[in-house]
Design a protein that fits this description.
Helix content is 43%, strand content 22%. The chain has six helices and six strands. Strands 1, 2, 3, 4, 5 and 6 form a six-stranded mixed β-sheet that branches. Strand 4 and strand 5 form a beta hairpin. The termini are far apart.
């Protein structure tokens, strides 16, 4: 009887161990794969245009940057994210993410380059974090230039007749790159057609 009781206790202990171990694994995996939110201040840099003589595309770029900044600023209601607009940067003569970080405390930036090819517009984008300049190796050597840590990059293409699509996709891509856990209503708002600067879309 004593032997049976001991064996029963061992079996119960083993079963308890495996049950706890089995349930612990999914939680550990979720924690390990969860990316941190890139909170702070996002600088929407003034877009560059491949052909500066294309005045309509230049105008579109200004409207795109302003509208994107306004859309992304709306996320600050529920998330620890602030947005510096392209106009704010231009007023301070800031043109790079490194300058935005130094002058205005930006912790991330969105850079856009626009190119037109026939009836298509391409928007190459990069979402990045600024990194500090490397220290010089010797007193006589120059410091290494600052580099940015790229969070996401890509190209969005849309026909001239549907340039709202570029704004929508860039807004979603930026929020995704910053690992912002969007609520359903926020996802719909970012992906919805529309802009507060319609004159920029009279291409």
């Amino acid at each position: 009887i004593a032997f049976a009781a001991v064996m029963a206790a061992i079996v119960i202990s083993l079963v308890t161990y495996f049950v706890r171990h089995r349930h612990a694994q999914p939680n550990e995996a979720r924690t390990a794969t969860t990316a941190p939110i890139v909170a702070g201040t996002l600088a929407v840099l003034p877009p560059t245009v491949a052909d500066a003589s294309d005045t309509k595309l230049v105008s579109y770029g200004r409207g795109l940057a302003d509208s994107l900044a306004q859309r992304l600023s709306a996320l600050s209601v529920n998330h620890d994210v602030a947005v510096l607009t392209a106009k704010q940067l231009q007023d301070r003569k800031v043109t790079t993410l490194a300058e935005a970080a130094k002058e205005l405390g930006a912790t991330s930036g969105l850079a856009i380059k626009l190119t037109r090819e026939g009836d298509l517009v391409h928007a190459a984008y990069t979402v990045a974090q600024p990194e500090k300049s490397a220290a010089p190796a010797t007193t006589s050597s120059a410091a290494q230039p600052a580099t940015n840590h790229v969070l996401a990059s890509g190209t969005v293409t849309a026909p001239v007749s549907d340039m709202f699509a570029i704004e929508n996709q860039l807004a979603v891509a930026t929020a995704t790159a910053l690992n912002i856990p969007l609520r359903a209503v926020e996802q719909r708002a970012l992906a919805a057609h529309g802009t507060t600067f319609p004159e920029a879309y009279q291409y």
